[in-house]
Amino acid sequence: MSHRKIMEDYYCDIDNLADLLSKLTNCYRLLIGSAGELNSIALAHKKDVKSAIDRVNKLGDTIDGIINVLNESSECYMDYCELHSEIIKGKIKMEYIENEINEELFLNDLDGDDDKKE
Predict the structure, then answer these.
(1) In whole angstroms, what separates CA 56 from the centre of its chain?
(2) For labelling, which of 27, 44, 99, 107 has a CA lying 20 to 30 Å from the CA of 13?
(3) Which helix H or strand E contains 47, and what residues bound it?
(4) Is the pLDDT of residue 117 over 60?
């Protein structure tokens, strides 16, 4: 397996973790809201409210774990991206990019002139 493929898979894993974090965070917010509503109901038992809060705390611990994994994983991926960028900067000649931009601008100017003639 090539190094590029490994890093693409690595990025995919990070993306999946971020997606999972988003979904779990939404669930966390809903559980907190539900626990608050349950607490405001006069007929609710205290043990039910405590159970709801315990559930929220367990999910919060899971979310904290995912955040820690993402922090560690994303640092490695960002190092890869930075190294990749430095290599590309070293290989690309700025004159070629400037020529491409100038040619594109020149062609756009020509297209604009053709539009004016019609």
Answers:
(1) 24
(2) 27
(3) helix 46-91
(4) no
Q: Sketch the domain layout of the chain as residue ranges.
A: 3-91
**What's the rounded Cα separation, in Å, for the pair 27 and 34?**
10
Mean pLDDT of 95-117: 74
Residues 30-87: pLDDT tens digits?
A: 999 999 998 888 888 889 889 999 999 999 999 999 999 998 888 888 888 888 888 8
Total-model pTM: 0.63
Instruction: Give yes or no for a contact between 80 and 7, defined as CB atoms under 8 angstroms apart.
Output: yes
Using DSSP's 3-state secondary structure scheme, residue 16 falls into: helix
One-letter amino acid for residue 64 of the chain = D
Contacts of 111 (CB under 8 A, 6+ apart): none
Helices 46-91, 3-40: inter-axial angle, 10-degree rounding:
150
Which distant-in-sequence residues (6+ apart) come within 8 Å of 59 by Cβ? Answer: 24, 27, 28, 31
